[in-house]
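Input.
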Amino acid sequence: MRSTVNRILTYMPVLSALALAGCGSDSDTSKFIGTWQFTSGTVTINCPGFATDTESVTGNFTVSKGSTSDLVVLDNQCSLKFSVSGTTANAAPGQICTMTDATGTEVDTFSDAVFSTTDGATGHLSATLNLAMTSGGASETCQATESADLQKL
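Output.
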């Protein structure tokens, strides 16, 4: 099961971006649209029976204008939406992302996420999600939290 826990670290930068979900807005979305790079931050994964795993967050994600929501983040296995109010994008709780690879299947349910930017050049992301992982007939449910700073490329 530990290899499955480590697999989430590969997806976490994109998943964090995908955690930003919802609909409806009273704000300008242009500050959020573009490619964002993680400049610092960590993701912490807690799985029963395993030591807490904290890793640095790296990578990029792209935010686009949504057709049925303010904004959307697309990944090869996920597509989630989020809304903007002022300088903050908030997740709609309960959005799900399912990923499958050679080691098994992972279903991530996003509890919350907040992505903020006041200048459209730098930002901060915090997210919480539950991970339900299945690999080799074994299943595990874990929780992940992330806090990261961002820079628009």
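The longest helix spans residues 2-18.
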